[in-house]
Specification:
Elements: H1 7-18, H2 35-45, H3 53-66, E1 70-74, H4 77-87, E2 95-99, H5 104-112, E3 116-120, H6 131-141, E4 142-145, E5 148-151, E6 157-161, H7 173-182, E7 186-190, E8 198-199, E9 202-203, E10 210-214, E11 227-231, H8 234-244, H9 268-299, E12 305-307, E13 314-315, E14 321-325, H10 333-342, E15 348-349, H11 369-375, E16 378-381, H12 386-395
Parallel strand pairs: 2-3, 2-6, 6-7, 7-10
Antiparallel strand pairs: 1-11, 4-5, 5-6, 8-9, 8-13, 10-11, 12-14, 14-16, 15-16
Helix pairs in contact: 1-9, 2-9, 3-9, 4-5, 6-7, 9-12
Bound molecules: pyridoxal-5'-phosphate.
Pyridoxal-5'-phosphate (PLP) binds near residues 76, 77, 105, 193 and 216.
C-alpha cells in the first residue's frame, strides 16, 4: 500500500487546534500562580541558596503528589539519575541497559558512574523499552552468577535497567519489573518527562528502586533548572540527601564530611518556583490532556499520519504531543519539519539515537529496528498548556 501525505493538511490541522496569533513554541512554561510571591519571599528574607524552607516544602509536596515516601530535590535531572544509579550499586565497568531512543542525559548519567550504556529497543505502543524483546535478548546473551547477571559477550556485569517514559507516556512497567527480578537487575526509572503520568493507577517512579524527575525549563513544571530523586526506601533516601549535599555531617559549626559527596543541591529560590509550579500541576495536566484530545480529533481523518495516544493501562501527562508518520510516508518528515518551523509553528524530530552518536557508537546494543524506524517517523508538535486556556478564552468571548 502506498499512502500519501499532504504537509499543508497537517499544518491546517495543527492550526485548527492551536489558534495562534504568533510564533508557537514547542512547550512554554507558565507562571500564573504564586511564583512571584514565593520567589520574592526568598529575596526578601535572603534565603536564596542551598538551604531554606522551600527546599523542604518542595520535597514534601513532591512526595505527596507522586505518592512516594521520599523526594530529594537536586540541581537537575541528570544529577538525579547519576545519584540514583550510584545508590543502586552501579559501579565502574558495569553495564546498564537503557533505550537507544532517549535524551542524552540517561546515557551520560550511566557514563558518569564509569559504567557502560547498553542499548535496548523500544515498542511502538509505549515508545519505551520493550520488555518482551529485552527478556528474549537477555536469555540469549547473559549468564547468571553469584554476583549477578553477566554479559557473556563482553564479560561485564549487567547491573541495572533504566526505562524512560517517553514524552510522558509510561513504559509497560509490570513485565519490565518481572524481567528485572528474573535477571537480578536494579530498576531505575528515568521519569524526567512523566511527572503526573500514571501506570495502572500508580504514579510513575514507584517501580524503580529510585527514580529521577527533571524540572528543566521545557518540562511540565519548571524550577528554572532542577530535578528530584523519588524512592520508597528510607535508607536510600537518607543516603541520597547526604551525598547530594556534600556528605557533610550535621554540626553547628564544624565542617566534617564522611565521603566524597556532590554539590547537587537545589537552591531555595528554585525550589520556591517549584512549589508554586506544583500547585498548578493538576491544572496543567487537565489542559494538556484536553489539548491531546483536540489533536486526536483534528488528526483522526488526516492521511499518512497518526496522533500518538497514551498506552493501555496508563494515564499520561501528554508532556509533548507526538505525530507518527505512516511507514510509507517517512520521507515527508524533513519537509514537514521545514514547513512548520518556517511558518512559525515549532516542531522537532526525535533525538538522534544514542548509538548513532560518536561517543556511544561502540557501546553494546541489541537489534534496534523499532527505535530506528520510529526516530525517522516521529515529530513533536506544540504542547503548551496555555494553548487550551487561550482558546477557551477565545471561545468564551
Ligand atoms: C530532561 C530529561 C532529563 C534530565 O535533564 P536535566 O536537563 O538534567 O534536568 C533526563 N532524561 C530525560 C529523558 C529527559 O527528557
Amino acid at each position: 500500500m502506498t499512502s500519501s501525505l499532504n504537509p499543508d493538511a497537517i499544518i491546517e490541522a495543527v492550526e485548527s487546534v492551536i489558534n495562534r496569533s504568533d510564533f508557537e513554541p514547542l512547550h512554554a512554561p507558565q507562571f500564573e500562580g504564586n511564583e512571584w510571591k514565593y520567589v520574592k519571599d526568598c529575596l526578601d528574607t535572603g534565603w536564596v541558596s542551598s538551604v531554606g524552607k522551600y527546599v523542604d516544602l518542595f520535597e514534601k509536596m513532591l512526595a505527596d503528589y507522586t505518592g512516594t515516601k521520599h523526594a530529594i530535590a537536586v540541581v537537575n535531572g541528570t544529577a538525579a539519575l547519576h545519584v540514583s544509579l550510584k545508590l543502586a550499586g552501579v559501579v565502574s565497568d558495569d553495564e546498564v541497559i537503557l533505550p537507544a531512543f532517549t535524551f542524552i542525559a540517561t546515557a551520560n548519567a550511566i557514563s558518569y558512574c564509569g559504567a557502560v550504556p547498553h542499548f535496548a529497543d523500544i515498542e511502538f505502543s509505549t515508545l519505551g523499552l520493550d520488555p518482551e524483546k529485552l527478556a528474549r535478548y537477555l536469555s540469549e546473551i547473559t549468564e547468571m552468577k553469584e554476583e549477578g547477571c553477566f554479559n557473556r559477550i563482553t564479560g561485564r556485569r549487567i547491573k541495572a535497567v533504566v526505562p524512560m517514559h517517553t514524552f510522558g507516556h509510561p513504559v509497560d512497567l509490570d513485565p519490565l519489573f518481572e524481567v528485572c527480578v528474573k535477571y537480578r537487575l536494579e530498576l531505575i526509572e528515568d521519569a524526567a518527562e512523566s511527572l503526573g503520568s500514571y501506570y495502572k493507577g500508580k504514579h510513575t517512579g514507584h517501580w524503580g528502586k529510585l527514580s529521577a524527575l527533571s524540572f528543566n525549563g521545557n518540562k511540565i513544571i519548571t524550577t528554572g533548572g532542577g530535578g528530584a530523586i523519588l524512592t520508597n526506601d528510607t535508607i536510600l533516601a537518607r543516603q541520597a540527601k547526604h551525598i547530594t549535599t556534600t556528605a557533610k555531617i550535621a554540626h553547628a559549626w564544624e565542617f566534617v564530611h564522611d565521603q566524597i559527596g556532590y554539590n547537587y543541591r537545589l537552591p531555595n529560590i528554585n525550589a520556591a518556583l517549584g512549589c508554586a509550579q506544583l500547585e498548578n500541576l493538576p491544572e496543567y495536566i487537565r489542559l494538556k490532556r484536553n489539548l491531546a484530545e483536540r489533536y486526536a480529533n483534528a488528526f483522526a481523518d488526516i492521511q499518512g499520519v497518526k496522533f500518538f495516544k497514551e498506552p493501555p493501562n496508563s494515564q499520561s501527562n501528554y508532556w509533548l504531543n507526538v505525530l507518527i508518520l505512516d511507514e510509507s510516508c517517512a520521507s515527508y518528515r524533513d519537509e514537514l519539519l521545514a514547513k512548520t518551523n518556517q511558518c512559525g509553528i515549532m516542531t522537532r524530530p526525535a533525538w538522534r539515537l544514542m548509538h548513532q552518536l560518536d561517543m556511544f557508537s561502540q557501546a553494546p546494543r541489541m537489534d534496534l529496528t523499532n527505535s530506528e524506524a520510529l526516530s525517522n517517523r516521529l515529530i513533536n508538535i506544540p504542547s503548551s498548556p496555555s494553548i487550551v486556556s487561550r482558546t477557551m478564552e477565545v471561545n468564551n468571548g
